[in-house]
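Feature request, filed as a ticket because there's no other form

It would be nice if the structure record came with a short human-readable summary line next to the C-alpha cells. Right now we just get the raw output. Example of a typical job, pasted below so the devs can see what we mean:
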Amino acid sequence: MVSIQKTPKIDFKRLCDYVIQKILIPETNQELDMAYVELMFNLISNYRNNNNLDQAVKLNKGLETYVLEHDTSKKEVNRAWQYTLINDMVLFHIQKDTMMSKKLGLQYLKNVAALKDTNLLVLGWQNMYNLYTLQRDVEKATHAINEAIRLDEELAVKTSHYYENLSKLVELNIFFERNPEQTKRMLSKIYQNDESRLISFEMFARYFMNIKSNEDEKQALFNLLDVKDIVDFKNKALAETEGFLYDYDQFYLYQVLADLMESYGELKISNGLMVKAISLNRKIYSQDLSASLADQKSNLIRKEKELELSLEHEKSNRYIASLIFISTLLSFVLLSWFRMKKQKKIVEQKNKKIEAQNREIEKREHEKGLLLKEVHHRVKNNFQIISSLLEMQSKGIEDHKARELALEGKNRVKSMALIHQRLYENDDLNIDFADYTSKLVREISNLYAGELDPQVELFIDKISLDIDTAIPLGLIINELLTNAFKYGVLSDSDIISLKLIKRENDYVLNVKDSGRGIPQEIDINKVKSMGLRLVRTLTKQLQGKFHYTYNKGANFEITFKDANQRTEIA
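Raw output as currently delivered:
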C-alpha cells in the first residue's frame, strides 16, 4: 500500500523472478541463515500480493522444509518458523477461510509474544486487522491496528509497516467520521514522510469531504499542505502523483478527487477528473490484455518446441530399432529394408499430415478462445463505461424519481457487466453463481450503505450456469435485492435472505425480507412497478414460475430451468 515518493514504478514480478533464479539455498549442515528466511518471506509476500498464489505456496513450503531441518528448540529457528506461519495465515485469509486464518493468527500472536519479538508482533496485529476487516468486525479491527501502531512506536527504529498501518487507522476514522484530532495528527505524519506521502492525498481528499462545513479545520489543513483552497489542493495532488503512482492507485485517486470537487460545487473540474479516470481504466484493461496475449504466445512457442523435440526423440528410437532388427535378421535385410522404407515414408507422410491438421485445429481453437475472451472483456468494459456515464448523469438530475430510475438502470448494467467479468476470468463458458451473487450483494449493499445496515444471509448451492441463464437470473436477483433494500428494511436488525438451490431438474431462487410487503388487496400480476414487471418477463424467458407470498415480510420464489433443459423442452 505504501508508495515511495518520486520513485519509478517497479515490475515486482520480474524482479522477484530474477532474485529466485540467483538466490542459493543455504546448506542445511550450517546454522540457520535468518537473512535468507527474511528474504524468502518478502519474496513470498510480493508473489502473494501480486496474485501469484501458486508460486507463493510453493516457496513457503520450501521455506518450511528449510527451517524444519534445524533445531526448532532454538529461539532463532522458532522465530524463523513464525514467518512461515504468518504466510499460511494470509493464504487462508485470501481463500476466505476465516476460521483457519483466525486460529493461526491467534497462535502466531501467542508464539511471538513468548519470543518477545516486537517486530513480529506488529506484523501479527496488522494481519489480524485484515482478518477482522474481512469479518466486518470494526471494533476488533480498530483494536488490532491500534496495537500494531502502539508496538511500532515503542521501537527505536520503526518497521516498514508503520506508515501503512497509520493509513489504515486513518481510513477507518474517515469512514466512520470519528477521532478528528487523531486523524489530523496521523495524516500529518503520513504526509511529512517521504515514503508514504503519495498515498496521503487520497486520504486528505476523503477527509476534506468530511469537514466541508468546518472552515477552521479546512484552513489548518490548507496551511499544512501549503495550498490556498480546495482546487489548489487538487492541483497539488495531481502534480505530486501523476507518473509516480501505479495505474490502479492513480485511477482511484482520480475518482476520489472527482467526488471531492463535486461536493464543493466544482462540477466542471469533477467531470474532467471522471473523464481521466475512464481513460486510465481503458488503458489498464488494454495493458492487461496485451500482457495476457504475450504470455499465451510465449507458452505456445514453448509447447511447439517441446513437441518438436519429442518427435525427434521418437524418430531416433525408431531408427535404432530398425538397425537392430536389420543386423539380427540379415537374411531378410534387403526385402525388409525396402518394405520398411516404403511403409515408413507413408506413415511419416500421414503423421505429418495429421500433426499439421492437429496444429491447425489447436491454433484455431486457441484463436477462438482468445477472441471470445476479448469479446467478453470488451462487452464488460462497455457496460462499465455505460454505468459510469449513467452515474455521472444521475448526479446532475434534481428530480428524485428520475435520479432513482437512472441509478437502477446503472445497477442493471453493472449486474450484466459482472457476468462478462466472470466469463473473461474463467476458462469455460459457465459462471460460478455463488461467487457472482456474493459480489452482486456487496455492490447493492454498498449502494445503500449509510442508511440502514441489515444482515444479508446467502444460502447458495455450488452452481455453475451458462450465460443465457446467468444474465436474466442476475437481473432478477438485482431487482429483488434492490426492492428488499428499498422497501423491506425497517431497522439494522432486519434480515434479507437469498437462497439459490437445485431441486431435481429445476433451480429455485428465494428472496425474503422483513418489510411491509405488497398490500394484500393488490394483484401481484398487475403491479405496474418496472422492477417487478422485469422480473416476471425474465422469469418467462427462463421458462420459470413466479410466486409471491407474505409471512412477516415479502417472500419471492422463482422456479426455473437452465439452457440445456429449456432446449430439451422446446
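Something like this underneath would help us a lot:
The chain has 20 helices and seven strands.
Residues 1-117 form one domain.
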